[in-house]
Amino acid sequence: MRLNLIIFGLLLLAGSNAFSNETEGGNPYGLTNNQTVQATLTMTGNVVHTPLELFPPNPEAEALHLGAINPGQTRIFATEPGYESENFRIGCGVKGTIGYNVHININMELEKDGVQIEPKWEISPKLMGGGYVIMPYTYPANSLEYNQTIGATKGLFVRSTILRLTALPGAPVGERLFKFTLKFEYHEI
Amino acid sequence: MKNLFISLALLVVFTAASFAEGTTNPYNVTSNAPVEATLTITGNVVAPPIVIAPNPQSIELGDVAPGEFVTFTNTKQKTFVITCAKGYGIKVTGSTNLVANKTSIEAQVAYRTTTEGTWSTAVAIPAATAAVVHIPGTATVTGYAEVLVNVSKFSAEPGAYVGTRTFTFTASAEYE
């Protein structure tokens, strides 16, 4: 009798396990109805910029003629800011990428064979259209470093106005050629 | 004589045992007692898992110059196909970084429930995690839906550094 009860109990247990397995097998997903799944979309793009390009393309062709002067004489082309003659102004710009900072390096020849010039340097964040500010420069330093961010016209412009021309006493007669060399490069602020 | 007593004793024991078994009635039945049987049949309704495919996906937006932008007319888009339980509503929650290092994108999302169906009105993908589409249960009788992600604009601010930017749209779908 007791043995029968034990055997019956074992069968019951086995049966319940069998039912349990069957139930799991009938629900292969094992889900609740608020399970979430995720998807991912990656979007990539590149920021590219244009290299700096001189404007006008060949500034060496530009020349400024200061006229004649006698030894021991000084010619003043401007006395007040804003009244400088455009006849004694020369400039060079670069086309570049808007918002980028450009480092400007200027090397100047300020004296040649007893003749001296005094320039004033200005810069605009525009390629054309003004908005010039005077670059901090103390004459007679023959080099100038400056940083400028390129503005909305995708370029900047640097110009020099010759304020004064001086021929020292005894300066030999003849033509003088003064060169300004401007170097532009992108530069991190 | 001794054997006789032993025989009588055994007889008494067996007889008693026999009576003892005879008095046990393990079935306790009467001749017309009814018996009943019960069979319980059970089944489960299960929601199959939502499947989004293909996943993951990517879009190449191309180049843009600082201070410039490029626009796209249905050329930079991907579709996620959702399979789900029929008749269930689905909520798709998504977010993306719309800005990355001085660049930005504009993107929208829409859905439809058949391959040739009409797209829902596109909504802008928000930067913060929020529901981007609610696909109603009545519309998912097919157990199928498509979610379209469209990028319409890629912009770079002035001064944005050269390089690759990555925008990641992450969406999660769940029954609702």
Overall description:
The complex is a heterodimer of chains A (189) and B (176). Chain A has one helix and eleven strands. The model of chain A is unreliable at 11-29 (pLDDT under 50). In chain A, β6 and β7 form a beta hairpin. Chain A is mostly beta strands. In chain A, strands 2, 3, 4, 6, 7, 8 and 10 form a seven-stranded antiparallel sheet that branches. With 176 residues, chain B is mainly beta. Chain B has one helix at 2-23, and strands at 51-53, 57-64, 69-71, 77-83, 90-96, 103-112, 123-124, 130-135, 144-156, 163-175. Helices cover 12% and strands 41% of the residues of chain B. In chain B, the strands form two sheets. In chain B, strands 1, 3, 4, 6, 7 and 9 form a six-stranded antiparallel sheet that branches. Chain B has a three-stranded antiparallel sheet with strand order 8-5-10, with no helix packed on it. Chains A and B meet through β1 of A and β2, β6, β9 and β10 of B. β1 (36-47) of chain A pairs parallel with β2 (57-64) of chain B.
Quaternary: heterodimer
Radius of gyration of chain A: 40 Å
What's the order of the H and E elements of chain A?
Answer: HEEEEEEEEEEE
Percentage of residues in strands of chain B: 35-45%
Q: Average pLDDT across residues of chain A?
A: 82
Number of helices of chain B: 1
Cα-atom Rg of chain B, whole angstroms? 38 Å
Give the ordered list of helices and strands of chain B: HEEEEEEEEEE
Low-confidence sequence ranges of chain B: none
Cα separation of the termini of chain A: 97 Å
Structural class of chain B: mainly beta
Please sum up the structure shown.
The complex is a heterodimer of chains A (189) and B (176). Chain A is mainly β and 189 residues long.
